[in-house]
Write the structure tokens for this entry.
Amino acid sequence: MTRLPPAIPITGTTRLYAVLGHPIAQVQAPTLMHPIFASLRIDAVVVPVHARPENLEHVVRGLQRMDNLDGMFITVPHKVAVPRLADRRGPTVDIVGSANVMRRDTDGGWLAENFDGSGFVAGLVAAGHDPGGRRAALVGAGGAGSAIAAALLTAGVERLGVYDWDPAKLGALVSRLEAHWPGRVFALDGPRLRDADLAVNATPLGMHAGDQLPFPLDSLPRHCVVADIVMKPRETRLLRHAAAHGHPIHHGIHMLEGQLNSYRVFFDLR
């Protein structure tokens, strides 16, 4: 018989955090945050909330009016839309144009911030793939991709090529990054990532079994680390193919694991 994990006691004093996404089955925040709450003896739970894009503002506004809800985690596809629903935005949000967390401050206002990028880089470094001085290429200029691009440049990548199927989205991101890191970032004209030491999938491609590869592998040098931000399944089609081609691979869960300390500080968990 399978042994179930102990149930989390929920009472009238339990504080709530929500994780918002569409779809929602893949989210890992509850699994990773509940042990932190338990270790710190914090009476709180993270609850998955399935919010369709057309309902996002209604869902967020309703959650913000819940007095026992202290914060929200934001995942696909809401990271770009959420900052306008916050009262204040952290400096990273202003650079990358997306957020992956919001918290209620003591005055009742809501602050949005983004730790996707710093978490991704922390995960890379912990796995022995320090991006400093490397050449990186990234596919996906959405909320997570924008944050990762900025964090890679902050971490000292020599140059960064970015591609997205939406030319307007791609151009806007490259312009924002160029303003902060001139001469180190450029737009790719297609999803063929050449001369890269690190190749990153920052799109949702890979969440479903029939998804196409976000980029081909035949143009990558053998030493290139292939990283995916998709967390479920752990072994995406991209990572399976990359490993079969002899590339070092880096799993999506490391990005979330790399954010845990930032979450503790941001939400003042102690």
Remarks:
- The longest strand covers residues 15-21.
- The chain has two domains: 15-114, 117-255.
- The chain has nine helices and twelve strands.
- The domain at 15-114 is CATH 3.40.50.10860 (Rossmann fold).
